[in-house]
Each structure stands twice: as C-alpha cells, then as structure tokens.
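User: Can you model how zinc ion sits in this protein?
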Amino acid sequence: MGHVAFGVAAASLVARATGTADSTALWMGAVVASGIPDVDVVFPLLGLSKRYHRNATHSLLFAALVTTTAFAATRMFELKPGTSVELAWIAALLSHLLLDVVTTGPTLGRLGWGIPLLWPFSTRRFHVRRPWFVGDRTESHTFRDTLREMREDALAIVPSCAVMILLVRFWPSL
Ligand SMILES: [Zn+2]
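Assistant: Here's the modeled complex, given as structure tokens:
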C-alpha cells in the first residue's frame, strides 16, 4: 500500500511537471509500476528462502530492463501512451526502490536487507541511518509482524503521500 501511494505521488509529480492530462493509463500504469520490484515475493510464497526477496528485482539494472521491455511492448502492440506518461511510469517504478531504501534503517541494514541498487556490479546494499516514515525496524518473522508493518505503512506513508499528491495537483502554477 505504501508503494502504491508513493508511486502515485511520484507519477503525479512528473505528470504535473510535464503537463500530462489525467488518464486511466497514467494512473493504472503508475500503480502497477510501483509494485513491480516486489514480484520477487513469489519465491518466499512458494516456500523458498525469504532471502530471494530484495535481490535482483530491486536493482537499477532490473528497472532499466523493465522499462526497455515495456517500451518495446507498447511499440509492438501500437499502444501510444506518450513519452510523458511513460516518464511518470518510470518515476513510479523507481519510487519503489527509493521507498525501500529510505524505510530501511541500520538494524535491517545490518541484517542484509538493504537494497542492492547496483546489482550485479556491486554487492553494496543501500539503506539509511534514520528511516523516513517508519522506525528502525527489524526483520518480521510472523504474519502478525507483517500485518503490524502494513498498518504502520498505511498510517505513516499513505497520508504523507496523499498530502503530497494534493499539493502537487492543486498548487497554483506560477
Ligand atoms: Zn520492495
């Protein structure tokens, strides 16, 4: 939920900057793009190690591959979302990586849950010293932990993003 809110906020910022009109494609694309890096949660859900999460799909290289594939697909199927809509989608996709970095504090960082932005060229995992929106979380082990984090995300990230979206949309042009 936090990723969708942050992704839509990032897309709305780009849409405002480029003067892009509202459309279903713009917002639905932003919602989808903001969640793409977490496709890797299917591995733990299939019973594999949870360490498969936050790996290759959380890298800038993967974001570039997704972008290139999406561009090729829109050209192949003659969909013409327009450059500014595509830019908003890219912003939503990249916002996922940014949000994961800024909500990962030193404790999770020490446990190896930082974001491998430069994979496969570097093993460095990015996190921050003081997380935004949330506290210095540790690993969640139970379903209850996950639910608590989701509630925390909904209460901390979603309202901040809602304010940002409203400001971006209704701030008068100079
Ligand atoms: Zn993620």
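A couple of observations from the model: The radius of gyration is 17 Å. DSSP finds seven helices and no strands in the chain.
User: Helpful, thanks.
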